Amino acid sequence: xxxxxxxxxxxxxxxxxxxxxxxxxxxxxxxxxxxxxxxxxxxxxxxxxxxxxxxxxxxxxxxxxxxxxxxxxxxxxxxxxxxxxxxxxxxxxxxxxxxxxxxxxxxxxxxxxxxxxxxxxxxxxxxxxxxxxxxxxxxxxxxxxxxxxxxxxxxxxxxxxxxxxxxxxxxxxxxxxxxxxxxxxxxxxxxxxxxxxxxxxxxxxxxxxxxxxxxxxxxxxxxxxxxxxxxxxxxxxxxxxxxxxxxxxxxx
Length: 252
What we know:
By secondary structure, the chain is an alpha+beta fold. It has helices at 75-90, 104-113, 130-141, 154-171, 215-220, and strands at residues 11-13, 32-34, 48-53, 145-150, 176-180, 187-195, 198-204, 224-228, 238-243. Strands 3, 4, 5, 6, 7, 8 and 9 form a 7-stranded antiparallel sheet that branches. The protein has a two-stranded antiparallel sheet with strand order 1-2. This is UFSP1/2/DUB catalytic domain-containing protein.
C-alpha cells in the first residue's frame, strides 16, 4: 500500500549508518534492498469481511542483507530494521532529527547503553525479541510501542491478536513485530484479513539468506505471504510489538 498514487521503486540504496560499535565492518555501502515486497500479492482464498494493511513504504531486511551472516540468531534484529525503515520513510522525525536504520552492532550497543543488556551482549549472537524491539524504536526514533501478550490457542489468536492488529493498522499504519516461545522465529506482520473461512496474517519472514531475489520470486517462495492464523503454533504464546506511530505520521 504505497502512500503515493504512482508506483514506488522496487529497490532503494540505503545508508547503513555503522558509525558506532564497529558497525561499518560488515556493511556493504552499495547494497540495495527491495521495497514493499508484499505489493501485488494475491489476497487469501476467502471472502473478506475485514482487511487492514500497512500504509507507506518499508524495506525488506533479512539474514545477510548487509554482508553479516546472522543466520540462526539475527531474525529479531532484521525485523527491527524493517520496522525502523518504515519509520524513516513515513514519520516526521522528532526534534528535526532523522537517523538511518541502525546496524546490528548499533542495536546491540543501544541495548547495553540503556542498561537492558550487559557489556558482553555487544558483539554476541544473542537473540532479541519484541520487548527489545520496543526499547530500540523508542531509543532511536522516539516511537513508543505497545506490547501485547497473546496466550497460545486458536481462540486467543483468532480473537485477541486479530482484533489488536486490525485496530493497530487502522490507526497507526505501521508494520508489527511478532514472536513467541515455542515458535520463537521473529516475524514482521504487514496486515490482517478476516474472512468467511477464518483469519490470515500478512507475514514478512526475515529468515531468507542468499542471492538477491526480485519481489515476484520472494512471493513465490513464501518469504512474504498470507498465513492462516490457525497455522501458527497453537501451543506457543505470542507477543506483538505495535509501534505507536499515529502522532508522527506524514499524510498518506
